[in-house]
């Protein structure tokens, strides 16, 4: 049995690059960008009017002029026009190009217009007032978004602005999620007294969807011949296999033996942690295999603790790390890394973690009361109120 720290490092070291996809920019939210995005023109691309009103040559105002004949109008989206007489003005709309020969914009609220004459009602105007200068935000050729950025709404807006209708993103692995066991029945079936409904595969599907990874699911009965033939095909077809169950020491826990017979290189099997100790991790030349324990909380924890970091490293990104302050004393005696279910809240700007009472790794409903897990190290058995530890929120 290896330590949690060793296991996590082995998993991270097994990360792999799955290449690049080029997809429509509107489909890229939540993906990892695999190219740098540059400004294709100045931002803004012209001197932009920021208020509805009139544009004047500010020199005339400084010389004492307060009334201006309206010479024309410059709507947003129209070609730039010119002020012909420096003692006149041009009506302008927000977003319009600033007319040539003008240097300030006075908003409608500060003027009175009557019979084609605009009267300025304020005493001070400054040069370049209410004008968003060309190139003030970014200049042409500037890197706007760096490679390996997680794409969100702001990035999508920038893609549209620079004309990137397709963007390069990290390609996601092809994933199959597999449950095993004769005791499991479909969600829409009524289980017999000795059966339960499948839930772990759908928990994993949902956890992967948070990463914008699509997956397929399969269920295999506890028949070694069937397991072997089915998994052999999956190893040749998918980049990642996520198993839930059949990796412990029970008489029908055939998976470690099947993996060995199919040429899966075992990198480790048991980890000194709770929950999730009987965790198998291995790989073939093409496929990475995560064999999670069958208890639902163990499956949940191990997906967050191992698959998430493996995936982030594979696509060239990093997981956000958080710590929280323990709200009460906790005693945990086995020499294991402990993932404590917690409720998280903020107090005076600090993240506070309150332990949740649960009935072990089979108590799936306990997660309904939790926001995440606090990672308690194995170097002590007593964890004091007020101490800070890493948390994994979900």
What does the model show?
- The protein is built from seven helices and 29 strands.
- It has helices at residues 4-13, 58-62, 153-161, 200-209, 224-237, 255-261, 296-314, and strands spanning 2-3, 20-24, 37-38, 48-49, 53-56, 67-74, 88-92, 104-107, 111-114, 117-120, 131-132, 143-145, 166-170, 175-180, 184-185, 196-197, 215-220, 240-244, 265-268, 271-274, 280-283, 288-292, 322-326, 330-331, 337-347, 350-355, 372-376, 382-383, 388-393.
- The chain has a six-stranded mixed beta sheet with strand order 8-5-7-6-10-9.
- Helix 1 (4-13) packs across helix 7 and helix 5 crosses helix 6 (255-261).
- The relative contact order is 0.13.
Tags for this model:
six-stranded mixed sheet, alpha/beta, 394 residues, Molybdopterin biosynthesis moeA protein, domain 3, Molybdopterin biosynthesis moea protein, domain 2
Short description:
The protein is an alpha/beta fold and 394 residues long. 19% of the residues lie in helices and 32% in strands. It has 4 domains: 2-18 and 172-314, Molybdenum Cofactor Biosythetic Enzyme, Chain A, CATH 3.40.980.10; 20-43 and 137-170, Molybdopterin biosynthesis moea protein, domain 2 (Alpha-Beta Complex); 48-132, Beta Complex (Molybdopterin biosynthesis moeA protein, domain 3), CATH 2.170.190.11; 322-393, Beta Barrel (Beta-clip).
CATH architecture of the largest domain: 3-Layer(aba) Sandwich
Number of domains: 4
CATH class of the largest domain: Alpha Beta
Strand content: 25-35%
Tell the overall outline.
elongated
The largest sheet has its strands arranged as 8-5-7-6-10-9
Q: Assign the CATH superfamily of the largest domain.
A: MoaB/Mog-like domain
Mean pLDDT: 94
Number of DSSP-assigned strands: 29
Helix-residue proportion: 10-25%
SS summary, helix count: 7
Low-confidence runs of at least 5 consecutive residues: none
Structural class: alpha/beta
Radius of gyration in whole Å, from Cα? 31 Å
Ends apart, CA distance between termini: 27 Å
> What is the CATH topology of the largest domain?
Molybdenum Cofactor Biosythetic Enzyme, Chain A
Q: In this structure, how is the largest beta sheet organized?
A: 6 strands, mixed
